[in-house]
User: What shape does this take?
Amino acid sequence: MAERTAKVSRNTLETQITVSVNIDGSGQFKAETGVPFLEHMMEQISRHGLIDLDIHAVGDTHIDDHHTVEDIGITLGQAFKEAVGDRKGIMRYGHAYCPLDEALSRVVIDFSGRPGLDMKVEFTRGNIGRFDTQLFWEFFQGFVNHAGVTLHIDNIKGFNAHHQAETIFKAFGRALRYALEIDARAADVMPSTKGCL
Assistant: This one.
């Protein structure tokens, strides 16, 4: 099997971002983005997805975190798209529920080639530390548009906003892990011909 890795750089007037991804990694994570809470969340993707991620970003965080968070999502999506390739032989669909104390979230993903995001999360606080919770939508929207995936995110319950966010990212990592597994039963079948798990 070919290595499923990618390194993508994105440079705009507001941000300079480089993302390296190894889908078949062991959960190694490195990041320097200037947005510490997002780094904490992306580490959950890496750890629970068993995906190696190395993310470096310089952005206009002196204004706010919006451009940096959105552009990290975009670049991460581009890196996943490149690393996955033609999607041939992957399980394609993945889903996971993850709890953390009182919070519970569900994430379902389809590496369909068609971007779509449905995110139903009512954060109990507008900010977690200095991180604006509205930016999670920007992150995931950037990811799905550039990875070419359909993504459903539901926070089922929870009153601690940190816990709400963490369950989402843990579930996202695990859903990625399952969707990107090689389907030994149909390794030479295009994913579009396979049914939902």
Remarks:
- Residues 4 and 20 are 11 Å apart (CA to CA).
